[in-house]
Amino acid sequence: MTPAFAPDSPDARNLHVIAPDRLDDWLAAAPPHWAGWLKATGFEAGYGETRLLPGADGVEAAVVGLGSAQARRRLRFGLAKAVASLPQGDWRLTGDMTPEERSEAALGWLMAGYRFDRYRPGKAEKPQPRLVAPEGVDAARLEAMAAGEFLTRDLVNTPSADMGPDELEAAFRALAARFGAEVEAVKGEALEAGFPMVHAVGRASDRAPRILSMTWGTGPKLTLVGKGVCFDTGGLNIKPTSGMHLMKKDMGGAATVLGLAKMIMTLALPVRLRVIVPMVENAISGRALRPRDILTSRKGLTVEVNDTDAEGRLILGDALAWADEEAPDLLVSMATLTGSARVAVGPDLAPYYATEDAVAAALEAGAKAGFDPVWRLPFWDAYETMIEPGIADLDNCPPGSFAGSVTAALFLRRFVSCPRYLHFDIYAHAPAELPGRTKGGTGQGARAVLSALPALMGV
């Protein structure tokens, strides 16, 4: 599935975008049968409110409401609600819209075309109406954003039986091959020796753990690290049934960095891109990691395992240490790491941590430009003692329920020395159908990072 805009043509029908405060003027200038129809059906130009407009041979055009400024603040991609109401064919947006509103509408339209039908081959969805790229938008960039998002959603939505470490590696290699990137894989004895925490987390499963690195391009060094826990039982600190229902998405960090990498490579940005993904299944067997075990990480730091269900920060610790060894200009990690982050900001915001205020400022601007909301949480130094158990250098899960996302971020920071580091504690799942976002797997933070790269990397 490749999201793309339709070519402009005379056959494209108009989708008129109307703001509520301009509705009366628009109706006064519209053909009487259109105006009468809209008044009779109670059209008020609410955000995403859509009506088809009749013509001699059927549907001639359509209108969609721009809604109030408050409504637009509350809901992203509201104009994408129109897609489900429109007949097949090509459509062109018309009306008074800012460049930002046109870009948001166009991106939302592309993302509304996503379907996950791998397990419903006999129920293929009907073709979606297509949008002509609105004037003034960067069509190639929006198409790249949507294509990267589709990859992320596909990976997260695939059940763990079909998305274990082998399958995630295959997806990783397929993306690398498409763009001519180099791949390095570390497995078996080399993994145990070089990445002890990755091996320790994954050794209980008969689906062998591994870590992969992809390298592409030239320019300033950008390294992305994604958590690739293909399923998380919690290990010996086993999760309850309710806690396992969504654990196929515990590789959402890996899926998101692969989606972001696809965006970057599709746009041929002048960066030296490296993507690192540790791939494991946190299973239960006689070889499972035990509570109170002490691991020696790749960096040399010792870690007491106080909760085997806090495995994501273990594999990321080794991965970040590897990434940090070549001193990237910007290091970004993404992970479905803590329930505390969901309690703090819910499923729609992507909380992040930044070591530099300038990096955070660039990301905030990128989030606005990419229609990808983020929220900064602090690397709060006063909590450093919470991750120091005394018996080892670090505690992977301090007791108590306070500041769980912050202490996890502080744990990861211990494995990083490069000055510019961003960490995202994402959810990677939309719990309900929303405009431009189907229920299920979703990317978070990728478009914000992509849009921030000009400021962060000078590209």
UniProtKB/TrEMBL annotation:
GO CC terms of this entry: cytoplasm
Domain Cytosol aminopeptidase: start-end pairs: 151-449
Signal peptide coordinates: none
CDD domains noted in UniProt: Peptidase_M17
GO molecular function terms listed in the Swiss-Prot or TrEMBL record: manganese ion binding; metalloaminopeptidase activity
Domain M17 aminopeptidase N-terminal: 15-133
A Pfam family this chain is assigned to: Peptidase_M17_N_1
Keywords: Aminopeptidase, Hydrolase, Manganese, Protease
The organism's place on the tree of life at top rank: Bacteria
Listed InterPro entries: Leucine_aapep/pepB, Macro_dom-like, Peptidase_M17_C, Peptidase_M17_N_1
GO biological process, one term: proteolysis
Family: Belongs to the peptidase M17 family.
Name by which UniProt lists this protein: Leucyl aminopeptidase family protein
Annotated source species: Neotabrizicola shimadae
